[in-house]
Design a protein that fits this description.
By secondary structure, the chain is of the alpha+beta class. It is built from 8 helices and 19 strands. The protein folds into 3 domains: 5-51; 57-163, Immunoglobulin-like (Sandwich); 171-185 and 230-349, no CATH class. Residues 333-379 are annotated as: Disordered.
């Protein structure tokens, strides 16, 4: 802990006291002596107030993991040593929670608050993916006159995971993967296995109408190989960019490529999962499997958040292959190359979204309608 130091206001008071003392010595005067006495009392009281402050302990609320661009509210509660109640008198201070470069604290500069009078809260935004670090906590204690300041550092640290930025994926691209002869579906219909609840993307011919009539929700027929065929394998890697005049430039380009790869992998994975398709994701730093029921989703997001540049160690066969450089990500699926930028633009523009079950429209329902009595379909 540092010793108390004078603030700008405190230095002004010292200068005033020195000038008043000089004037008093030169010409005398009771009024000047009163100024000197008041200034000295204020300086002494301020110094003692700040010098007696003990460093408290801080407890930070752990911010929830989130995607780049999301915001979280963080609270700091101060208490006595070893988790005891706040045993000293409350004091004024400016509190700064030191965070890494991947986080931005929103709002104005830290204002004066009362330590020991309640929690201190602020809002933080995730600006880049990865394991984001909070702490230590810097406290600048001051006196009621604002004449002295003393810096206290509380070594309280917390981490949170910032997931890569996610983007919508073109429905046209997804429909191509879910076609009868496309990726994720086997054209072979094996023996009937069981009945299950309707999921978005199920074929109308699989609806079991007698069972549906007995339930509030649609029921479809499941086949013995269904679990295996509703999965998409995504394999991603980065290329050696070789940009920049030196090592730092190359490292920055590689990191940019890894960021784009992670964003593309997460965007595709979440789109597939929302469509009811499991995802096997393989990236340079490992692999993860996630299912539509949220099993494995956190592991998949953390893998994408923490992965670096490079290539997966295994040569797994990919349904969707991603190759990223520091400008874009190239995708290869069903023998058709495209780019991540093109998929994002198509999804943003709305082209290819017509008749897509994940695109809300005024008259659309995610449920197929029952067939007419003559066996046809309603229009």
């Amino acid at each position: 802990m540092r010793s108390p130091t004078l603030t700008r206001r405190g230095r002004i008071v010292v200068v005033v006291c020195v000038l008043a003392t000089a004037l008093a010595l030169a010409g005398g005067g009771g009024a000047i002596n009163a100024v000197i006495l008041s200034g000295l009392v204020a300086l002494a009281a301020g110094y003692l107030q700040v010098a007696r402050v003990d460093r408290p302990e801080a407890v930070r609320s752990r911010p929830a993991d989130g995607f780049v661009g999301e915001r979280r509210t963080v609270s700091l509660t101060f208490e006595g040593a070893h988790g005891t109640a706040f045993g000293q008198s409350p004091f004024l201070a400016r509190v700064t929670d030191v965070v890494d470069d991947g986080l931005t604290i929103l709002g104005r500069e830290p204002s004066l608050t009362t330590i020991g009078g309640g929690p201190v809260s602020y809002t933080v935004e995730y600006v880049s993916r990865g394991r984001r670090r909070f702490g230590p906590v810097r406290i600048e204690a001051t006196d009621v006159f604002g004449l002295f300041v003393r810096e206290l550092v509380v070594d309280e640290r917390t981490t949170a995971i910032a997931y890569p930025e996610r983007h919508p994926i073109s429905p046209r691209f997804r429909r191509g993967l879910y076609a009868e002869e496309g990726i994720g579906r086997s054209p072979q219909r094996e023996a009937f296995d069981r009945l299950r609840e309707y999921a978005r993307g199920d074929s109308l011919r699989d609806v079991h109408w007698p069972a549906t009539a007995k339930h509030d929700e649609l029921v479809v027929k499941a086949f013995s190989a269904e679990r295996e065929r509703r999965r998409v394998t995504i394999v991603g890697r980065t290329v050696d960019t070789g940009n920049g005049p030196g090592g730092e430039g190359i490292a920055a380009a590689d990191e940019a490529a890894a960021d784009l790869l992670a964003s593309a992998a997460v965007s595709l994975s979440l789109a597939f999962l929302s469509d009811g398709v499991s995802v096997d994701l393989r990236l340079p730093d490992g692999s993860a499997v996630a299912h539509p029921d949220s099993t494995g989703r956190r592991e998949l997001l953390e893998l994408a958040a923490l992965t670096g540049p490079g290539a997966p160690s295994d040569g797994a066969k990919a349904d969707v292959r991603l190759v990223a450089d520091d400008t874009d990500v190239r995708l290869h699926a069903n023998g058709r190359p495209t780019s991540f930028t093109a998929l994002r633009s198509e999804a943003t523009d709305g082209s290819g979204a017509r008749d897509d079950p994940t695109t809300p429209t005024r008259n659309r329902t995610d449920r197929p309608r029952a067939p007419l009595a003559d066996g046809g379909e309603r229009r």
